[in-house]
Amino acid sequence: MKILLNQVSHTYDVEILHQLNLSLNGYKSVAIIGVSGSGKSTLIRLLSGLESPSSGLIKVNDMHVSDEYYRRRIGFVFQNHNLFPHLTLKENITLVLEKTRNMSRVDAQQTATHYLKMLHLDDQIDKLPKNVSGGQAQRASIARALSINPDLIFLDEPTSSLDPILTHEVLTAIEELKGLGKDFIFVTHVMSFVKDFADYVIFMDKGDIIEMGSPEILDYPKSDALKAFMQKVR
Ligand code: ADP
Ligand code: MG
Fold first, then answer.
1. DSSP 8-class letter at 144
2. Would the CB of 34 count as within 6 Å of ligand 1?
3. Which of 72, 92, 155, 160 is 20 to 30 A from 149 in CA distance terms?
4. H or E segment at 140?
5. How many CA atoms lie within 13 A of 159 on its CB side?
6. Domains in the chain, ordered, with CATH?
7. Cα-to-centroid distance, 104 and ligand 2 (Å)
8. What is the mean pLDDT of the chain?
9. If you measure from the C-alpha of residue 172 to the centroid of ligand 2, how many angstroms do you get, rounded to a whole number?
């Protein structure tokens, strides 16, 4: 994928992101790391076009992220699963495909089942979110993101509400998606997953990009901020 940030700033009540610049080309899986409050979620929301920056230019794959075509070619997985509570896992996906992709009910159900199986949820398909584990619900929301066949998938701390066992289960399922040929931009605190899955890492601190490069920067941090961060997450 290609990512371009040109002087990107974002302000809520105060400025959160400070004139970020970035130009990447050819990476498949980009991790954004940093302590809480450093601006990771804000940046990933801007990159996905969920929000517009206060100033500056953002392009992904040569498209403005506000572009309607771009918005239809991406998927987003949030910290919490975001499934409709009154719908089964399968209905959650079927509804999206019918409403936003004009799919027939039969096709939508077939697609939903296909992706739920890919995420190893074969026997959970007809359950409500409250009747499956947090890890299963999160895998269902990954299946939902995949079901629209996006080119690029965003994940913002997809395992932050899960215990270590369920975290491992979800991250393993994400790693299995590598063969699909899709691109990923994700935020996580699980550094072993960053090392396994990312081919590029962006380290943020206080709204700035402090270091970036191959996952090796985690083993050989240059800045004091990344050194301190790596002490904390180990
Ligand atoms: P991270 O994901 O790294 O924890 P965030 O991007 O969520 O960081 O937040 C960065 C800063 O922006 C934090 O200080 C947070 O309180 C603030 N912030 C995030 N979202 C909003 C919002 N919608 N309104 C006001 N402040 C926000
Ligand atoms: Mg966040």
1. H
2. yes
3. 160
4. helix 134-147
5. 19
6. 1-73+154-159+185-234 (3.40.50.300)
7. 36
8. 97
9. 21
Relative to beta strand 152-156, strand 183-187 is parallel
Beta bridge partners, 101, equal: none
Amino acid of residue 141: S
Q: For 143-185, how does the pLDDT look when each residue is reduced to its tens digit (9 = 90+)?
A: 999 999 999 999 999 999 999 999 999 999 999 999 999 999 9
Backbone angles phi, psi at 190, to 5 degrees: -90, 100
**C-alpha to C-alpha distance for 193 and 168, rounded to whole angstroms:** 9
* Rounded-to-integer distance, Cα 182 and Cα 148, Å: 12
Ligand 1 pocket test, pick from 9, 12, 52 with the greatest ligand atom count within 8 Å of Cβ, gives 12
133-138 average pLDDT score = 96
Number of helical H runs and strand E runs in the chain: 8, 10
Q: Is 16 in the pocket of ligand 1 (CB under 6 A)?
A: yes
188 lines ligand 1 (CB under 6 A): no
Q: Is the pTM of this model over 0.85?
A: yes
Cross-strand pairs, 17: 10
- String of b and e for 20-52 (b: at least 16 CB within 10 Å)? bebeeeebebbbbbbbeebbbbbbbbbbbbeee
Query: Would you list the DSSP string of 157-223?
Result: STTTTS-HHHHHHHHHHHHGGGGG--EEEEE-S-HHHHHHH-SEEEEEETTEEEEEESGGGGTS--S
